[in-house]
Design a protein that fits this description.
The chain is of the alpha+beta class. It has a single domain, classed as Beta-lactamase, CATH 3.40.710.10. Helix content is 36%, strand content 16%. The strands form 5 sheets. A 5-stranded antiparallel sheet has the order 4-3-13-12-9. It is globular, with a radius of gyration of 20 Å. It catalyses: a beta-lactam + H2O = a substituted beta-amino acid.
Length: 368
């Protein structure tokens, strides 16, 4: 038994929405009943043994062949990376070392920066935070229903939960401000030597530039952003999307992300408690039900973060799922599947991600 212990558990309070689409969580429903509902405490168990990384081993031929086949049959810019946390091997598709748009996968680095500050005694999850109307962003931000008048009083811990489990953009950008902004996140990535991972300017600036817009706060109200974007010419939008895909400011190599998640799982990045908090919060995510988690057999656990970019016609720039898969026997696999630019239908993109998880589960089931 290691210092962390394979049966270590953390009780994490997370809110779930009344519907899958209303991806918000809160411990303070508003009087009008508009806030997402509060669920009972959820107990998740993500193994976090503090073992040293295993010696390098040759990747299993069966799984390597399966991933190679998937890579040959999918049309688009993408990368697949798998690191066996306990067995010591790595599988990487040809695009695994290419920077792909992260989109909301980048929320993971904000959360890691928070855990790093917590370990330094510079942040607490129960620190109070005010979310004001001027903090609202765009796209998916269920916390906006609670931000009225002078704002919504919450905590750092609730922002973390909303950002990771429901991919709330406003919660994440407010948390980003709390930890010190993009420069603080970039400094953490460099200090922890996480590899080829960029961190962008935050949701508002990233998404507006990707669309071909200049951000102003009025775009955060209702569907203001979508309306302004719809008024742009197809040529402007295509040029902006091309610029984003060719050099994404939030770009990251899937292999670097898989390595970071493997190091997180081994307890190399943060203290025992911070590691548990982060993995258990990722384990409570309700996003991406048709991605990695959809292919996992009974008994498997997943702690993950999804990311989805903007569409332009049939084209999508950023369709991702990254995380830690844990087999029933405790073996763990860090996975990053990132589709950076593709015209394939959403169902085919989902199937690629599912197929990678299914291949890993099949390997684990036959190699006991």
């Amino acid at each position: 038994m290691t210092a962390f212990g394979r049966s270590a558990r953390l009780i994490l309070i997370v809110g779930t929405s009344a519907t899958l689409f209303g991806c918000g969580s809160t411990s303070r429903p508003n009087a009008g009943g508009q806030a997402p509902a509060v669920a009972a405490p959820v107990e998740v168990s993500i193994p976090v043994p503090a073992a040293a990384p295993p010696a390098h081993r040759v990747a299993p031929a069966q799984l390597t062949t399966a991933i190679d086949t998937l890579a040959r049959t999918f049309d688009g810019k993408f990368g697949i990376a798998i690191r066996a946390v306990d067995e010591g091997w790595t599988i990487a598709s040809p695009g695994a070392r290419t920077r792909m748009p992260q989109q909301s996968v980048s929320k993971l680095w904000v959360a890691m920066t928070l855990m790093d500050l917590r370990d330094q005694g510079k942040a607490r999850l129960d620190d109070p935070v005010l979310v004001r109307p001027e903090d609202l962003t765009l796209f998916h931000q269920p916390i906006a229903m609670l931000v009225k008048g002078a704002g919504y009083q919450t905590t750092v811990g609730e922002l973390l939960t909303r950002a990771l489990t429901h991919s709330d953009n406003t919660a994440n950008d407010r948390l980003l401000t709390y930890v010190g902004g993009p420069m603080a996140v970039r400094a953490m990535i460099e200090r922890k030597q996480l590899g080829d991972i960029r961190f962008g300017p935050g949701e508002r600036l990233l998404q507006s530039k990707t669309a071909g817009l200049t951000w102003n706060q009025s775009l955060s109200a209702g569907n203001g952003f979508e309306l302004a974007r719809s008024r742009l010419s197809p040529e402007v939008r295509a040029a902006a999307l091309d610029a984003y895909v060719n050099d994404p400011p939030d770009g990251a190599a899937p292999l670097a992300i898989a390595d970071a998640i493997a190091r997180l799982a081994r307890g190399e990045l943060f203290t025992e408690t911070s590691t548990r908090i982060l993995l258990d919060t990722m384990g409570a995510s309700v996003t991406g039900r048709a991605r990695l988690r959809a292919a996992l057999p009974a008994g498997w656990k997943i702690a993950h973060k999804t990311g989805t970019g903007q569409d332009l016609g049939t084209r999508n720039a950023g369709f991702n799922d990254v995380g830690l898969l844990t087999a029933p026997d405790g073996r763990r696999y860090a996975i990053a599947v990132m589709i950076g630019d593709s015209r394939r239908p959403i169902r085919e993109r989902q199937q690629l991600i599912q197929s990678v998880a299914a291949a890993v589960a099949d390997y684990a089931g036959t190699s006991r």
